[in-house]
Amino acid sequence: MADYSLHTDDSITFLFKEGDQAAYTEIYKRYWKKMFLIAWNHSNDEVVSKDIVHEVFMSLWERRDIVDIKDLKSFLTTAARFSIFKHYQREKHRSELFNKNYEYNELANDESKLDALFLQEYIDGIVEEMPKKCRLVFRYSREMGMKNTEIADKINITEKGVEATLTRALKIIRIELKNYGLIIFAILHIINKLLH
User: Fold this and answer.
1) What pLDDT, on a 0 to 100 scale, did the predictor assign at position 6?
2) Confidence of residue 90 (pLDDT cuts 50, 70, 90)
3) Can you tell me the mean pLDDT for 133-143?
4) Model pTM?
5) Class for domain 119-196, per CATH?
6) Domain ranges of the chain
7) Which of the following CATH numbers is that of domain 8-91: 3.30.460.20, 3.40.50.720, 1.10.1740.10, 2.30.30.90?
């Protein structure tokens, strides 16, 4: 039997997508602890954290034929964050999360606003995993409202470079959202609002 621990992430990912259960087991061994810690940092609950990791790995196996994995570590990190937010959306912990960060009373009865906030948190997780230049350009443009000329001056690249980098960042976000089935009719207007 092959020693899968010697394989690169890319090699393991390829074998996994071919339906190799030993490769899937190796992915689990490599990344369950990191994913558990991500979940723990958000929930401070061991049972919830284990459930989240289990959910991610079950979904990964079930969707192995359709997921587009470019970077295994980033993919799983993003998947864990998304599962955390799905958990909060489903469970009573929703109010606890929003009491820390938002005016919950204004949002409690508005599902579309809650969905928008969860989606924004998920997109923030995707942005955090981007290459540094993509991350900076996206944040300067979308979060700080800077113009392309201002961004170009700030990070010392051309205005065309800013446009190309911003296009790349938006493409990364759209691909990640598509990979997790978030581009559906019910929230399409929210995605467009956040990305434009």
Assistant:
1) 87
2) low
3) 86
4) 0.49
5) mainly alpha
6) 8-91, 119-196
7) 1.10.1740.10
